[in-house]
Amino acid sequence: MPIPRVFVSYTHDSPEHMTRVLGLCNRLRREGVDCDIDRYHQAPPEGWAAWMVQSISEADFVLVICTEASRARYDGEAERGVGKGARWEGAIIRDELYERESQNTKFIPVIPSGGKASDIPKLLRSTTHYELEKTDGYERLYRRLTGQVEVERPELGGKIDLPSLNVEWSSVERPEAEAVTIGFLTDLLPNEADIYEAGRAMAEGGSVSIRWPDLNEDLFERFNVRRPDLRRQLAEREVEEGYPMAKAIEAFDRSLHYASLYRDRAADRIPLMWSGIEESPLWLGEPQDAFQDALLAFLVLTNLYALRSLGTVQFEEDFRELPDGITPDETWLKIFQRPAIAEALHTSLPVWAADVNMADESLYVYGPKDVVRSAYVEGAGTGLFMRRYLVPQMEVHLLESDNKKVVYDPGAVFIYKIRDEHFKEAGSHDSRLPEDFGL
Q1: Rounded to an integer, what distance in angstroms lies between the CA atom of residue 304 and that of residue 15?
Q2: DSSP code at position 117
Q3: Are strands 425-428 and 413-419 parallel, antiparallel or unpaired?
Q4: Among 311, 305, 309, which residue's Cα sits nearest to residue 336?
Q5: Dihedral angle over CA of 388, 392, 394, 396, nearest 10
Q6: What is the pLDDT of residues 337-395, one digit of tens each?
Q7: CA 194 → CA 180, 191, 343, distances in Å?
Q8: Pairing between β-strand 425-428 and β-strand 180-182 as defined by DSSP bridges
């Protein structure tokens, strides 16, 4: 870069101020900047006005030393006849900015020691200023004048190939006109009147659709819009390129994939659930009642699983609490102990877990302590355990399978362990229950 030519515009506020401005000019000249100021000249032959016009015109940069007095003169607020030089320089700067269509790379506000940002003239407040009182103030100004950047931009690298997932974006279709639509009363709780109508529709060979709650829809819309620009947004949050960025994108896609999977397959599982209950000999001609119990719990759990998956990928600016203040890092056992969840599932606290195997599927089935203990001792085929806890939780588990149907045969259920609300083993088939087990 050629040696920069710099002109200093300032007001003669006091001898001390004039000395400090002269000291700045002297330092810049010693350090390779061709800096000029009126005090280097006794009497320009062309006159001071013409000299100022020529100096400003020929300079690469003009340092405007900002004080309260100079601002008043530049902005035309000082008394007439006071500070004519500053007024004149201000008019020249305004004319140049007008010619440049306000594209300012030349006029630089400089705040001396003891000054403040409000001393900058109005026409220069939108440009970068430098405060000499700050530790790095002079260095930053010197870098600007000499074209030395503080941070070098790295060379553009090659593209990183990221792992791909077959992400299933939400594709919930509008319900058919003749379908019974199940809506939600709250972020978590489905409408029980709709559940009743759905049970009757399935018994009559009809179809059922689901209208998810507003919170569910809102989060899906946010992330569906976010995904195409995710890399830039993660970079703004200081996620490093390479492996950290790839893992963050993979986690986002996986969470959205599972949330979509739960939502989009839920309606397809409803007729399979009905068929599996209807073909079971357990309910003695009352499959519709059992189906309504199971369907309500199934929808609560499916919605909860989808919301929790979405909750893992929220950014701070769009975070919304999940129902009952649930956080994504909580265990399922802890979530089942929450009063709002228990109320939605018509369940009493505390909730225990049964290690269950049914139809070659293994899963934890959560339920009230007394119901889980009874199912463990008396057999898993007890109606309440099956219809309210095993069936809906099995159906949520099967959302990840390919339309597998399970007939809820009591003889095909095996509970091999139960756990208390702290997930500690409470009994097994290989040992007798404690005397205080409460049965």
Answers
A1: 74
A2: G
A3: antiparallel
A4: 305
A5: -150
A6: 989 888 888 899 999 999 999 888 889 999 999 999 988 888 776 678 888 999 999 99
A7: 8, 5, 18
A8: unpaired
- How far apart (Å, rounded) are the C-alpha atoms in residues 180 and 178? 7
pLDDT tens digits, one per residue of 309-338: 877 665 655 566 677 777 777 888 888 998
Of the candidates 201, 195, 255, the residue with the CA atom closest to the CA atom of residue 224: 255
Exposed e or buried b per residue across 243-282, where buried means at least 16 C-beta atoms within 10 angstroms of its C-beta: eebbebbeebbebbbbbbbbbbbbbebbbebbbbbbebeb
Residues counted in the chain = 439
The structural domains of the chain, ordered by start, are 5-146 (3.40.50.10140), 187-437 (no CATH)
What's phi and psi for 285, nearest 5 deg?
85, 5
Contact 249, 162 (CB under 8 A): yes
Place of tokens 């006071």: 82
- Please give the backbone phi and psi of residue 86, each rounded to the nearest 5 degrees, phi first: -65, -40
Nearest-angstrom CA–CA distance, 125 and 143: 20
Give the amino acid at 373.
Answer: R
Cβ atoms within 10 Å, residue 189: 18
* Half-sphere exposure (Cβ direction) of 93: Cα atoms closer than 13 Å: 27
